Amino acid sequence: MKKNEIVVVINPGSTSTKIALYSRSELINEHIIRHSQTELDQFHKVTDQFNYRYQMVEAGLVDMLLRIEVTVVGIAGRGGIVKPLEGGTYKINNSFLEDAKTGKYGDHASNLGSMIANKLAKYFNLEESFTVDPVSAGNIWEKARISGVPSIERNRRGHPLNMKMTARKIAKQQNISFEKAKYIIAHLGGGISIAAVDGGKIVDVNDALMGMGPFSPNRAGALPSRGVMDLCYSMPRKDVETLLSKNSGLKAYLGVDDLRDVFKLIDAGNEKAQLIYDAFVYQIAKEIGAYHVALKCKANGIIITGGIAYSERFATDLKEYVDALTDFFVYPGENEMEALAEGAFRVIDEKEVALDY
User: Fold this and answer.
1) pLDDT above 90 covers what percent of the chain?
2) Whole-angstrom Cα distance, residue 108 to residue 176?
């Protein structure tokens, strides 16, 4: 084990690609590549952006590495929407790449993470590349998969990478073993996922993309079935998907999808904005309460994370609902980059065995 060994981390977002260099103990350097929507609009699918983004990533890495003396021992890319998986660190193999590239389970910017990581591994003459806790990862209880209709299984698309990393930090803060702790974790951003974590594993989570949980800044969340049926018979499928996953929630009601703009409307006396915001907090609180019961009211804490958790005003309003349940923690932002690096180092240092897709 050498002090100058690093892992390169790649995290593609909708209009950016984050690159970071991590040692075992700290962040060495990071860089964010911005992509204009005009440039991205030329591609039919998100994964068609692969060559365009890879060239920029490789150039950015070359520039970052010129300034420091290090040895790249691993590459980790954010895993995309793939088949349902157990949580853990995965080797990026051909099957994983095929499902990510074709968008078989969903066409999302995070699908590019595994594709870029795989090519970078070849660039650095590494035998393997990794991804950690992909979007579809979890160890969901069998009873939590049941929907009420035998042909429909509950989806489990959330934010496991950030959730588990944040839970590890809170467990350490509480001096509790992560493998024995129980938490309700709410990742609050453009998408909202709320999960029950038991023994270091996500055992239940709403579908953050479409169909379950509270509404988000631009997603619909759970809906009355009859209303969904009416939509499906009145609009093409693609239009319904776009409406529910991109043009619903705060955006649909108020024309804004940034909570700071919602507060501006409220402070200007907009009664509708107040009502929709109250419903927003209320639905998140209800979902947290449901997962507290799912853990038989024995959770060691409720944790809110993600971009919305930066808002003290929101955190205070939510806490009024759930504070009596258990300890309440606010850990703003995302820890995805750090989580990817740590997962790769756990495998490299033989503390964990990489899983096969």
Assistant:
1) 77
2) 35
